[in-house]
Input
Amino acid sequence: MTEENAVKKVIIFRLEAEEYGVEVNHVQSIERMQNFIRIPNAEKSIRGVINLRGVIIPIIDLRKRLSYEEVPYTEETRILILALEGNHAGLIVDAANDVMDVFESEVVAPPQAASKEEQMYLKNVIKKESRIFTLLNVHAVAESLETASV
Amino acid sequence: MSHTEYLDMFIEESQEHIQAINVHLLELEKQPEDETIIGEIFRSAHTMKGMAGTMGYEDLTNVTHALENVLDQMREKTKLADTETMDVLLEAADVAEEIVEDIASGGEGKKDIQAITAKLLGQSTRPEAEQETKEKTSINMDWNEYDRAVIAQSVESGMQAYAVQVTLEENAMLKAARAYMVFEALEADGHVIKSVPEASDIEAERFNNEFTAAVVTTAAKEELINRVASISEIETVVAEVIEITTTTDNQESLEKAPSPDAKEVSSPDRKRTETNKTIRVNIDRLDKLMNLFEELVIDRGRLERISGEIRSSELTETVERMSRTTGSLQEIILHMRMVPVDQVFSRFPKMVRSLSRDLGKKIGLEVIGAETELDRSIIDEIGDPLVHLIRNSIDHGIEMPEKRKRDGKPEEGHVELRAYHSGNHVYIEIEDDGGGIDRERVLKKAVENEVIAAEDADTLTDYDVHQFIFSAGFSTVDEVTDLSGRGVGLDVVKNTFESLGGVISVHSEKGRGTRFSIQLPLTLSIIDVMLVDVGEDHYGLPLTSIVETASIKSSSIFYVHKRKMIDFRGNIIPVMFLEDVFEVPVEREWDRENYSVVVVHKGEKMAALVVDSFIGQQDVVLKSLGHYLRDVRAISGATILGDGNVALIVETNALL
Output
């Protein structure tokens, strides 16, 4: 494996029919749906907080954040718990079931999104064999909590 | 002990010494003749020089050395503590502080010190070389109680205690081995009770060419010297008798035999012999202890719940006993985290001094109650807002000397910084005898900023008007000075204190002065709350802000300016439905006849919060909502309840 072909491990998750990826080193765990504690007066995409083994973690509904239509949660719905520099946030996704190795050469294009704001949350488009997915900018998504909560 | 642990200790102690130097320099300025103060400063500078030398921070060594020289002459009265000298000395302390800060943030402690050493040298009238030789003849050792006890006992049993200073030849090989031989020689008829540097450092060759040992022995002084001197590669050996004197309070203190030169150097050291029985503990460990204890408190809550359900008298008894024990434990742990506000206050005298000079004002700062203790996590946060308030008092409060004279006030303005403890709170007050707040100007600005409507302006009391200065975008001073106008207003100060669960208010009288009062909680992490239910949600209301709980009839609510109010013990107070405030989704089939309310207060203000039901009172651990959810309105955090549920903690101050 050469330098420019360095490998990245990515967790693949689904939102509606599309696939997205999060670098595995940002993910602490993948949890099943559970009850939230509502945060009053918070922006709509913030579902609330959960108590995950003694740590209180704010949860974002990624469908809302990326302007997808809202659907009821299913058996497949998962929460990706992100750990970014020791800070936690959770993302609700439709399903998460795959881990992939991504090579630099498979990063094909900058992401396309409907709005400037959403563009911020996306990092790269990756084409691997026949699959195409978008790498999420987890820092931007997590930080959107800060402004949204005020 | 590893090097990094030494480094932490070095940084911590240096910071303490710099703080001490600053404090004492300011004292000295007021009492330039006081030799004990000069002695204190000298001692701090000297200790720092020694430490910096050992750690290899050359620049710091040189600065403290130059500082020491000037002080030495002040002590000999060949130099006066005039303003110019004080400025240079304070500047030197600043430079030393910068170097230490650099080291603390991982730097190498290097700094261009030419300018300051030149200035210090300018103050110093004596050639350098003489200073150096003088240093060498004094044997400096610190004695703790244990050392003193050992020495006293040995002397009683007919032995003699000596301080022996040994200098190895410049190019000595195997220094540690030579030192070992010296120790062997000294211990032939006695034993070494202490050495500087410590024995472990000497063994590891962590010393320059010089070390000092305290030895109790039956041998005579000359014999000791001869024995040591006969070892090769030894340059000089000096021995002095260590004498014990018993002070009136029965504490044994120890002094060296007064040799003409050493006496002066050691005199400040004598004062230091009062030792506190304390140990230094890394703050991380205390935090860890606190975290573990918090887990314990959560489990305690769980156990109390379970025992309440099971109703086994044995279990209940055990759980009750455990609750009492953890209660005491909690008190101890919280106390361990308390530090005196002096940590923050001590930097203010210097700041006031330089600010008032920059502004051409005369200001005396009086600090009262610096020993008042607060939780470390709070201390860490209050520094900046306090700086802001003091600057505010100096910049906007105290008038220019000419104006003060015209108004019949003393030329020197007075700023008082007070801290005191009362109940579950610590109060900090900043009071000045300056011009006070101009009601009309504040009102004008408040109307401009649309904080109030113009027609309401006249109905407000002075007190209410004064509080407007904490609103956003408020500055009544037209000209932008160097100090203010930096875009940070008192609203930021207010927010900081409120995020700590504090309350700030201002009292002012035109022409007489202004007083800022800040009420702070003693600690942040464990709080006593009243748990309540609102719809499906649980909320915790801090007990410190609760006046009482009550049940009111829905018919007793009336409207004032379209706001719901009740008459509560003669006060007309607003009624707030928490389900509305927090947009809790609740469906009710019928209207309630009675409301459960919690009456909360913030200073004089009160409000009744309507809830669905009371759960009970409980000690809970306040947890943050995480890094990404810092500013949720009226919520200061969350807590995990005994059953694993989460309750949000309400910051009632934000509701009032």
Observations:
- The mean pLDDT of chain A is 83.
- The interface with chain B takes residues 37-42, 46, 49-51, 54-58, 86-89, 142-143, 145-146, 149-150 of chain A (CB under 8 Å).
- The first strand of chain A starts at residue 7 and ends at 15.
- Chain A has one domain: 3-149.
